[in-house]
Specification:
With 49 residues, the protein is an all-alpha fold. The protein has a domain at 1-26. Helices cover 47% and strands 0% of the residues. The chain contains three helices and no strands. The protein starts with a helix and ends with a helix. This is GTP 3',8-cyclase MoaA.
Length: 49
């Protein structure tokens, strides 16, 4: 959610609240992290960090 354009445009509190509310309503009810399968476990030295 990009609030910066609204803030720079002088949006009122009601407009900001409406933008946040709409963003929350668009979010999925849950994430499918479990459906992706097991995650890869490795040390940061293997990753390159």
């Amino acid at each position: 959610l990009e609030l910066r354009p609204l803030l720079r445009g002088g949006a009122c509190d009601d407009a900001l609240a409406a933008a946040i509310r709409q963003a929350v309503e668009r979010k999925p009810l849950s994430h499918d992290f479990d459906a992706l399968g097991p995650s890869l476990v490795r040390f940061m030295s293997k990753t390159g960090g």
